[in-house]
Amino acid sequence: MTREYQKQEAIRRMKMLKLHENPIREFEKEDVINQSEHGGMLYWLDDKQKEYVKEFETKHNAVVYHVIHNYTDMGEMLAFLYVSAEEEEWEYDHDDLKYGCVCAYVMNLDDEWCSEFGSIGIRPQFGGLVRTDIR
Prior knowledge:
The chain has 135 residues and is α+β, with helices and mostly antiparallel strands. It contains 4 helices and 7 strands; from the N terminus they run ααββαββαβββ. Helix 1 packs antiparallel against helix 2.
């Protein structure tokens, strides 16, 4: 499994999620990862967020293609949407995406112990994504 192969899959997912064309192009041409926050508004990652993504990708042999940043009662969260190296899982991931559900690693910046892998609900808005309840 090559990073480039995972990246092509990530681009396919970004299109399925109906992300604005700019973050797709930036990711494809320049390896720039955008984040959604404030109801789907798009922003670039800051240097610390880039470090978190790089550490995650290295540790888990994954390619992060988008981040959702939000604040909850449990703390400040970064949800990493990623493509794993397990190609046999990709078909299931596609099915989930059709129903507004995506596998993510959610990093709790206020309490590392509460960080975890799981499924989150999402929907497109303003060119980016917002987290929703899983339905």
